[in-house]
Amino acid sequence: MTRAILEFAPAPTPIVGGFRTWTMHLWAFVLPAINLAFLVTGPHAWWSALLWTGPVWMLVLIDNQNFRDHRQPPEDLPSWPFDIQLYLLIALQLANHWFLGVMASKLVVSSYASFGTTFANLVGMAVVSGTTAGYSGIVLGHELVHRRNRFENFLGRLLLAFVTYEHFATEHIRGHHPRLGTSDDPATAKYGESLRDFVRRTIPAQFMSAWHLEKVRLGDANMKWTDPRMLQHRVLQGVVGEIGIVLAYLVVFGPVAMVFFLVQSRSAVVLLETVNYIEHWGITRATRTVTPVDSWDTDNWFTLHTLVGLSRHADHHSQASRPYHKLRFFEESPKMPYGYYGTILLAMFWNSRYQELAKAELRRRGLGPFRGGAAEGLPPLEVLSQSPVTP
């Protein structure tokens, strides 16, 4: 595929003006706004529901142009304008969850014709709403669970619960971050591992890891269900909350809406784990300290500004508490072949080609299996799981 390449600036050049940076991050509203329009104007005729997936593919095409941005954010960049953006995005995503139920409540499966219309809307919703819940909802939740503010942390857990993946807040902070690039991390894809095999392995393993981490936090790794401390078990609280959300969709909006919600959640979770896959595939850590070469990222301008800074993933792991608008570019980190949109589709639908390109990049940089001493001599799991950024 031929891609236009545009260099915005060399790496050492700081971004001039906080307002310009803030306006560029307004791109993050595009996808959730498209989703809101899809839901508010629905249900749709079968052909119209499928046409609504078009804007999502347009975003992929734009992202694949690979406009590069190596500019660095100034350390004195004020946070409050970006926090306002974050809260507006949260409100928009919660509105999307509500209108998903409203739209689905109007659909029925009482005849072949109505079933066809409902199914077409389900497909359109899986693409538009599922992508939004993954790219906007989970990405926002990820940003928030890294913050120390209790209210923001709660909002992050709430967004994750709306895709039935609240345990990610525990596993990601206290499991993945300290253990990434090691055999103890279920969220690190192994060298040569396919996406299908990774997803099948990582989803149950992350849940079990989060469950174990919470028991350890409460003081007993072998704690029984009847122990009163289980009431403080955050993963159990999350599961109960998720069951409550599913039942609320059933009671308030009906069975069709409940199915729509679950399909949306599945789409979002698969997207999340595909992101984990391309962010850590084949990398093995050689040191106790996490460095920028221990994670994949991309210099893609469009990914950076539509996905709340997600593209600068190497810096996120180097300093997990750094807010999205202050994440830095590192030239030395391994680079994805495209932005997140294109790389995700490549990993999903042409995995052999993705692995071919990823292997070439690791070989070029001398990382993963091409670097000696990887992941050996690290502290035991119990030590690695003590995260300094736990809320």
In short:
The chain is mostly helical and 391 residues long. The chain has 16 helices and 2 strands. Strands 1-2 form a two-stranded parallel ribbon.
What keywords describe this structure?
16 helices, 391 residues, disordered C terminus, disordered N terminus, mainly alpha, two-stranded parallel ribbon
Task: Give the spatial strand order of the biggest sheet.
Answer: 1-2
Order of helices and strands: EHHHHEHHHHHHHHHHHH
Low-confidence stretches: 1-16, 373-391
Distance from N terminus to C terminus (CA atoms, Å) equals 43 Å
Q: Which geometry do the CA atoms define?
A: globular
Radius of gyration: 21 Å
Q: Strand share of the residues?
A: under 5%
Helix content: 55-70%
How many strand segments? 2
Helix/strand structural class: mainly alpha
Tally of helical segments: 16
Folded structure, characterized:
The protein is mainly alpha-helical and 391 residues long. 58% of the residues lie in helices and 1% in strands. The chain is built from 16 helices and two strands. The protein has helices at 18-24, 30-40, 46-51, 54-63, 80-105, 112-145, 150-161, 168-179, 195-217, 234-253, 255-280, 301-306, 313-318, 340-349, 351-365, 381-384; strands at residues 6-7, 67-68. A two-stranded parallel sheet has the order 1-2. It is globular. The termini are far apart. Residues 1-16 and 373-391 have low confidence and may be disordered.
